[in-house]
Input
Amino acid sequence: NPGWTTYYPYFHSATIADSLFYAPGYTYYASTPTTFSETGFVTSLYGYTAGLNLHPWFQQIPLPATYGAIDGGKCRGDSATAINILPYDSGRAVVNITYADTIDAFGSMTTPYGTQNVLRQKHYDITIDSIFVHTKVSKVWSVYRVLATTNKQYRWYANGIPYYFALMQMN
Output
């Protein structure tokens, strides 16, 4: 329940919150009749809390989903915060995501939680995370770090379950 998290006021459109596995924080999702999308996330970086709302939302799957459907898109998040790490006074995070998805299979899947009729989605995205710092003296923004990651997944969705039924991450 996103309302149980400290950061819900910044992600009020979210209907689901998932804890991050790589750092403290949450990813926020909205599950509506027309889409299941990531709306943003919040984490702690170098002791500072950084949250980003994504625009447009990072669509995980359009609804209703059907076999053979292909979609994709781009989204972006940008957030700045005051920091006190000499010689810097501000930090800024920018995230750019480009993704492509295909509903490539359907059938039944059995897990310890039961058997469901599922659709399988092949998902690919490239995310470019950039961190900038603002120097107190020169008043100039400079690149601190840029990290590009690719994400390849198979995701299984079941009707009536507002989150992934199963997920397989690939290298």
